[in-house]
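Incident log, structure service

09:12 report received: a user says their structure output differs between two submissions of the same chain.
09:20 pulled the input from the user's history:
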Amino acid sequence: MAESKKLTKSIIIDNLYSKLKERYEETDITKAEIHMLIDEFFEEVKDGLKKDQVIELRGFGTFEVHTRKQRDRAHNPKTGAPVTVDTHGVAFFRPGRELKERVWNLRG
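09:34 re-ran on a clean worker, output below:
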C-alpha cells in the first residue's frame, strides 16, 4: 500500500513522541502533553493573527493577515445571484528561504 501524502496532526504527534522518546530515553512526556503543546502553539498563532500581528517563524515562514478589498462581482454558487463581498482579512503564509529550498525540486 502506498504511503499517504497527508500529514495529519495526529501523525505529527506520533512522530514527535517517537523522536522525543528516542532522543531523551528517560523523558516522561506523554502524547497528550504533546497534543496540548501543539494545540497551544496554534492558538498562539491564531490569537496573533486576530490581533493583526505578523507571526515570524525563522526557517519556516511568516503568517500575516492581508486585506481583501470589497468585490461587487461575486456570485452565490447555489443561485448564481450577484452578491457583494465586503472588505475582509485573510490569513496569508509566506514560506521562508529554508522551506523554499527544501521543496524546490519536489515536483521537478
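09:41 both user submissions now match this output. Likely a transient worker issue. Closing.
09:42 reviewer note: The two ends are 24 Å apart (CA to CA). The chain has a mean pLDDT of 94.
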